[in-house]
Each structure stands twice: as C-alpha cells, then as structure tokens.
C-alpha cells in the first residue's frame, strides 16, 4: 500500500513538473507572440527571435518566418504605393479624394498647380472662383473607401484646348483675309506700275492731266505696297516653320541672345552644362522677342534676368523676368491672343507667334506675375 502511494505521489510530481514546464513555455511563447504583434503594429521589423538551442528553435523559427512574410508584404505594398504616387504626380489631371466632411484625404501635384494653392487639406481652402472657372473642367464620382463614402474629384485644364481652337480660328480667318487681299491688291499694284512705266516711256508726264493721273497712280502704287507689306506681316503667323531639333548648350545660347540686348541682363543656368533639344533658330526667335518685350516694359533702373533649369519631369525650362508695372488682368488674359496689342504700333503677333513656335516644338510658353515683387516672368518649357 505504501509503495502504491509513493508511486502515485511520484507520478503526481512528474505530471506537476511537466505541467509547470509546459505552462512556462506557453507563457514564454505567448510573450514572444505579443512582442511580434506589437512590433508589426508599430512597423518595427528589426525584431528577431533567437533560434539557437533545442528548446525554442522550432517556435522561434516559425515566428521569424511569419515576421519575414509580413515584412515582405509590407515592403511590396509600400512599393506599390510609391509607384501609384509617381503615376498620379506624373499626370496633368488633378485628382483629389474628399470625404463627407470635405476633408481632402489624398491629392496629387497637378491638383495643387491647377488650383493655385500650396496646401490642400480641406475644400474650403480652394478659392470659389477656381472651382467655377470655365477653363477648369471638373468631374466627380462617388465610391466607398474603408467603409466611408468619398468623392473622387478630377480636374483638367482645358485652357490649352480653348487656346488651340482660338488660334486655329484666327489662322483660318487670316488665311482667308490674306488670300482675298492679296488677290485684290496685287493686280491693282501691278496695273498702276505698268501705267506709270508707259507714261514715262511716252513722255506724257509733263501735261497737267497726266500729272494728276500720275499722282493718282503713284498713290495707288504706294498704298498697295504698304498694304501688301502689312499682309505679309500677318501672313507669318500662319506659316510657322517645321522645327528641326538638335542638341545645343543653353548657357552659350542665352549669352548670345543677351549680347544684342540694349540693357544689362543677368543669366543663371543650372547645371552649367545644361543641354536642350530643340530648333535653336526658332528658340532664338522666341527668346529675342521675350527680351525685346522685357526691355520695353522695364523702366529706368529696372532689372532683367534670365534663368534656365530642369524641372521634376526633367524638362528644360528657360525664363525671362523683368521688373516693372504689373500687367492688368484684362491684358494678361488676352496677351497670347493673335493681333491683340496695347502698343500704338504693335502688330499683336509677337507673343502669339512665339507660343505657336513652342507648340510646334512640343513645348509651352506661359506668363506669371508676382505683384508683391513687381515682376513679370515668361517661361518656356521644352520636354
């Protein structure tokens, strides 16, 4: 009987010891699991469990495997997010994700540029006139994100399309007008020249009647020649040469442009060996026209500067900035419209032709004002 009791007590001790050991191991493994979950929740993947020794080798090995799988999934998700962010910022369409309280949860760079703001966290930060601007197309769609209804707002700048249509209309009109004027004036000018030549040959210019006739014909001829010269000036607007692009260094190019400028111009190029791929002859026409306008707009003691750089999309940008009186809003809105001018003897095709050249080259020409600094900047961009 005593031996049986002893055996039972021995078994009880062994079972108790095994239970305590299992409990301690369970508690240890539970603590490791808690550490793993806390680390994952805090995005800390530097944690690693010791795999040495027989006791914890198996459990710790699988905990480390779980951690590695979760870390790999997180890295892949972050890579996808970076990729989508690059795609969103590369597009010209402005995108915003807005919740029911008008909080802006997500936006891209184009949205800030189109809305003329540096901060986009709430719809109230956007000027009302920008959202109703006819040059800004707006499209909204509703979806569910993480159980909440949100609006996806897409913004597109249609100003370029409107400008292109306007320019195309002016080009068609100019072609029709020049064709009709040329067909009308050319024979009149030719006829007056022929009659004058015949009178000279016949020696009849001395008589009074013929003097009056000669004076009239001379007037017709001069008027016709002036009108033809006038038409030829506008005809240039409809015949932009096809660009023949090639690589050229920007800094020497700008230095050549400013060498003929009657006013001092400061030049800044970054990097110094910046290269552009465009038709250098056509670019010189654009830059010389911008410099000419800057000289005319800069008062005594004013300043003109030129700058060249590459933007985030690695496009080459060149700007001409001058100090002077701000351009009125009405003038600024029509400054690239063909034949629009505020100069008494201006033709109104300089900036229009420059923008046409930039479009033919695949680039853009824009104007910006800084009223506080008192500067006007024209910027050309080559992709």
Write the layout of secondary structure elements.
Blueprint lengths: L1 H40 L15 H34 L3 E5 L5 E4 L1 H7 L12 H4 L4 E10 L2 E10 L1 H44 L5 H28 L10 E4 H10 L5 E5 L5 E4 L1 H18 L6 E7 L5 E8 L5 H5 L16 H11 L3 E7 L4 E8 L1
Parallel strand pairs: 6-8
Antiparallel strand pairs: 1-2, 1-4, 3-4, 5-7, 8-9, 9-11, 10-11
Helix pairs in contact: 1-2, 5-6, 7-8, 8-10
What can you see in these coordinates?
The protein is 52% helix and 19% strand. Helix 1 runs parallel beside helix 2. The N and C termini lie far apart (100 Å). The mean pLDDT is 75. It folds into four domains: 86 residues; 67 residues, PAS domain (Beta-Lactamase), CATH 3.30.450; 75 residues; 137 residues, Histidine kinase-like ATPase, C-terminal domain (Heat Shock Protein 90). The strands form three sheets. A five-stranded mixed beta sheet has the order 6-8-9-11-10. It has a four-stranded antiparallel beta sheet with strand order 2-1-4-3. A two-stranded antiparallel ribbon has the order 5-7.
* DSSP, total strands: 11
Order of helices and strands: HHEEHHEEHHEHEEHEEHHEE
Low-pLDDT parts are none
- CATH architectural arrangement of the largest domain: 2-Layer Sandwich
The name CATH uses for the topology of the largest domain is Heat Shock Protein 90
Oligomeric composition of the shown chains: single chain
Quote the beta fraction: 15-25%
Q: Give the helix tally.
A: 10
CATH secondary-structure class of the largest domain: Alpha Beta
Distance between the termini: 100 Å
- In round numbers, the mean pLDDT is 75
